[in-house]
Structure formats: structure tokens, C-alpha cells
Write a structure and sequence with these properties.
- Helix content is 25%, strand content 27%.
- The radius of gyration is 17 Å and the shape is globular.
- It contains 7 helices and 14 strands.
- Strand 1, helix 1 and strand 2 form a beta-alpha-beta unit.
- It has a single domain, classed as Deoxyribonuclease I, Chain A (4-Layer Sandwich).
- Its cofactor is Mg(2+); Mn(2+).
- It comes from Sphingomonas xinjiangensis.
């Protein structure tokens, strides 16, 4: 079972890229972020014609998350995190697919720091940690997949010294990610590639892709039953080199 996460950076504007990648790689489950489209503008028909059922939570111009399942319809179990009733951002969706509970998330960027956006990021992270605690001990495999907007270690950023003041590399944010892992989650990509410098995002500016000046901010975290089934974890870097592509590349795992 191949489960992927992909920040598409606009699901309609990059629909040809998304459909091409789906056709070429045939993942079983896909978590999408940054749909940048309201619910009624989600391209359900095109996705279904590609062989995928979907659940989604859109938002006009910003945010938006979805879960796609090849050959079936995901069974939605939650949309939005508990803990902040007036939060209008579409950043979390959860569904069961073929015996696996999959959560797709888009953690806030948090810049500029300090400020209200950074405060919101920390609050959202705390809500994620609280909800993840209710999932980690499940007997079924659970996967938390998405754009976390966190580089957990120096190995996850091309020049750590340039990012010390950024919200994606702030000590508070990295500490929150570490606390999440301490609940019993496994960072799939890092578990299988502990010393390898791997990136999932390359900015459009400053020729970042050509220079391989990247960041690893897209992660798949696995609870115990899922981690026991982990076979492969990789990044489809080649997608970042396509025309009119997202600034992120898809990241995926395979579970036995």
C-alpha cells in the first residue's frame, strides 16, 4: 500500500501535473495540501476519472486539504482539529482507507516571527499533539501525512545558519515536533534514511531547484502498527522538475 503526501500549491492550476503524477506512479492513498480552492471548485470529476475517490475541505484562495484513495472512497472520520472552535482554516482531514487511518494536515507557516501568525502556528501544533495522542495507541495502522512546515534537524535544511530566525526552524517548533515523535510516532523517511540529506521543497526564488537548495518539511509519521509494516520511503524529486509544477515534491511510503 503506497501512501503519499503532496502539497500541490493550487489543485486547479496544477491539475495537469497532479493527474500526470497519479497516472505515472499510481499511489493508493494521497494527502493533498494547499488546494487553494473552495469546496465547490475541487476538481472531483477529473480526480474520479483518474480512478480516485476523494474527501476534501477547501478554502477560497488559501489552505485546503484532501485525501484521495485509488479505486475507493475514503471514509471521512474528522475534519478540523479540536480545541479552537473559531479556527476557520482548512488544515486537517482524516479518513479510513482499507484498514489504515490516514490524516492529512497542513501546519501553519508561522512567518513572520514573532507575531500573531507564529502564535497561531504554536497553538495549532499543540492541538495536533493533543489529538495525535488519541491516535497513536490505536491497534490499526495510523499515518499522519502532510506539510508540517518544520525542518526537524540541521540535516533537513540546506544551510541551517540561514534559517535560525525563520518560523519553520524555530526552536519552539522543532521542540513541538520532537514532542510529537515522543508519543511513539516514527518519522518514516528519516527512519529508513537516518543520515541522508533529503529535501521535499525547493523555493521558486533564487534558483533553489537548480542549486538543490531545499528543505525537508513534508513528513509521514507512523504509529506502532504502521511502523512495523514500513517497507519503503522516498521522494519523487523528478516531479519538482516538471513544467508549471508545485514547489513541493510528493513524498511517499509503502506499507506491507
Amino acid at each position: 500500500m503506497r501512501i503519499a503526501t503532496y502539497n500541490v500549491n493550487g489543485v486547479n492550476g496544477r491539475l495537469p501535473v497532479l493527474l500526470r503524477w497519479l497516472e505515472e506512479t499510481q499511489p493508493d492513498v494521497v494527502c493533498l495540501q494547499e488546494l487553494k480552492a473552495p469546496d465547490e471548485k475541487f476538481p472531483e470529476r477529473a480526480i474520479r476519472e483518474a480512478g480516485y475517490g476523494a474527501v476534501w475541505q477547501g478554502q477560497k484562495s488559501w489552505n485546503g486539504v484532501a485525501i484521495l484513495a485509488r479505486g475507493s472512497d475514503p471514509l471521512e472520520t474528522r475534519r478540523g482539529l479540536p480545541g479552537e472552535a473559531d479556527d476557520t482554516h482548512s488544515r486537517y482531514i482524516e479518513a479510513a482507507v482499507n484498514g489504515v487511518l490516514v490524516a492529512g494536515l497542513y501546519l501553519p507557516n508561522g512567518n513572520p516571527k514573532p507575531g500573531p501568525k507564529f502564535d497561531y502556528k504554536l497553538r495549532w501544533f499543540e492541538r495536533l499533539i493533543a489529538h495525535a495522542q488519541t491516535l497513536v495507541g490505536m491497534d490499526a495502522p495510523v499515518v499522519l501525512a502532510g506539510d508540517y512546515n518544520v525542518m526537524p534537524t540541521d540535516l533537513d535544511v540546506y544551510k541551517p545558519e540561514r534559517w535560525t530566525e525563520d518560523a519553520l526552524f524555530a526552536p519552539e517548533v522543532r521542540a513541538a515536533y520532537a514532542r510529537l515523535l515522543d508519543q511513539g510516532w516514527t518519522d518514516a523517511l528519516r527512519a529508513l534514511h537516518p543520515e541522508e540529506r533529503i529535501y521535499t521543497f525547493w523555493d521558486y526564488f533564487r534558483n533553489a531547484w537548480a542549486r538543490d537548495a531545499g528543505l525537508r518539511i513534508d513528513h509521514l509519521l507512523l504509529n506502532g502498527p504502521a511502523a512495523k509494516r514500513l517497507r519503503t520511503a522516498a521522494v519523487d524529486r523528478f516531479v519538482r522538475g516538471w513544467e508549471k509544477t508545485s514547489d513541493h515534491a510528493p513524498v511517499w511510503i509503502e506499507l506491507t
